[in-house]
Write a structure and sequence with these properties.
binds adenosine-5'-triphosphate, binds magnesium ion, alpha+beta, 8 helices, single chain, OB fold (Dihydrolipoamide Acetyltransferase, E2P), 356 residues, 2 domains, Rossmann fold
Length: 356
């Protein structure tokens, strides 16, 4: 059974005259991993800092386990150190003069945990992040990935109620990023951690999150599990942010859909707003030379011309023009000569419609 752990209500924050958070409402379930995703400057770090208690909201309320920890109305503010949250930052922030063991142990010392217990807990997390062999090394003698493992261990050893990550992998190279992403995901699941993870990287967000909150200009524009966010974006902004390649303005014309490029599509089964944008993800679009198409029924089937292609190894991305300048992107198993006639096909269920 799930229960609400963290509740943010109508959070607003300004820096000077500039509104940076504009009415954030958010509920996090216990054991959930929520990813805050969004472009640079949309307010992700600021929201994380409000939750951590590193800055106070100008308006609104934050509660944990039903207890208010921030209330802009009354001025109540539980200091960060009393929240029992762990934080992992992009720049690792390890103590340079302490070795790995001491870095991880430090917080327990401050808390007055006894030596034997400290040792036991540090050993345990060293094992979990596979850094046991490096316990005597100084941070300067570790790679970026190893330093970040220590930073994660240092947060985990405190057994935080909530783990907050702010772009922990963005200082690392691509291969290491992916490797550590899997490890973090494993740790969060193994410990049944409740976590909020900030990133501007979509694949990181999708692979880690139970739910993703997509932020834009200080607001959450959609919060959903990754599949729902990807397949059912609520707006053109969300679809574009998530890289939807086929996005066409349309208007209903009787039963049909009239795309702005003089192309008419047959009536879809689902109910569709009067006007808006049609979204079709490119991996759902198959493009093949005209003669090779077998007559599989039920698909939207358009005539087009291959204008451009990108060979990707296992398949080929095709840019095909249909109708009056509408370019559909889709995939073909093989190259198609530029200028060749093609069929552009996708299932009606692959169509998604947004009103704005
Ligand atoms: N202490 C501050 N004083 C003034 N403005 C600030 C301060 N902190 C952040 N801002 C501004 O608030 C906005 C949101 O910043 P924030 O750091 O939350 O964005 P972000 O989503 O984390 O971006 P990034 O992906 O670049 O880290 C930005 O326009 C930033 O310049
Ligand atoms: Mg940030």
């Amino acid at each position: 059974m799930t229960s609400v752990f963290l509740h943010c209500e109508r959070i607003e924050k300004r820096f000077g005259q500039v509104p940076v958070l504009r009415g954030i409402d958010l509920q996090l379930q216990r054991g959930e991993c929520l990813v805050l995703l969004g472009g640079s400057g949309c307010g992700k770090t600021t929201l994380l800092h409000v939750i951590a208690g590193l800055c106070t909201p100008g308006h609104g309320r934050v509660s944990v386990d039903g207890r208010v920890i921030d209330d802009a109305g009354s001025g109540h503010h539980l200091p960060a150190r009393k929240r029992r949250f762990g934080m992992v930052f992009q720049d690792f922030s390890l103590w340079p003069n302490m070795n790995v063991f001491e870095n991880i142990e430090f917080g327990l010392r401050i808390q007055g945990v006894r030596q034997a217990e400290r040792r036991r807990r540090v050993e345990e997390v060293l094992d979990q992040v596979r850094m046991g062999a490096f316990r005597d090394k100084l941070p300067a003698n570790l790679s970026g990935g190893q330093q970040q493992r220590v930073a994660i261990a240092r947060a985990l050893v405190m057994r935080p109620r909530l783990l907050l990550f702010d772009e922990p992998l963005s200082a690392l190279d691509a291969k290491l990023r992916e490797e550590l992403r899997h490890e973090i995901s494993g740790l969060i699941r193994d410990f049944d951690m409740t976590a909020i993870y900030v990133t501007h990287d979509q694949s990181e967000a999708f692979s880690l999150a139970d739910r993703v909150a997509l932020m834009h200009e200080g607001q959450i524009v959609q919060i959903d599990p990754p599949e729902a966010l990807y397949n059912r974006p609520v707006s053109r902004y969300v679809a574009e942010f998530l890289g939807a390649a086929n996005l066409f303005e349309y208007q209903r014309a009787g039963n049909d859909l009239a795309l702005s490029c003089n192309l008419t599509l047959p009536p879809p089964a689902q109910s569709v707003p009067e006007m808006g944008h049609l979204v079709v993800h490119r991996e759902k679009v198959s493009i093949a030379p005209t003669g090779r198409v077998n007559g599989a029924g039920g698909l939207v089937d358009l005539e087009g011309v291959c204008r451009h292609q990108a060979y990707l190894g296992e398949r080929c991305e095709i840019f095909a023009e249909a109708g009056n300048g509408a370019v559909f992107r889709g995939f073909s198993a093989e190259r198609i000569p530029t200028g060749a006639s093609v069929r552009i096909r996708f299932a009606p269920e692959a169509m998604h419609f947004v009103a704005h």
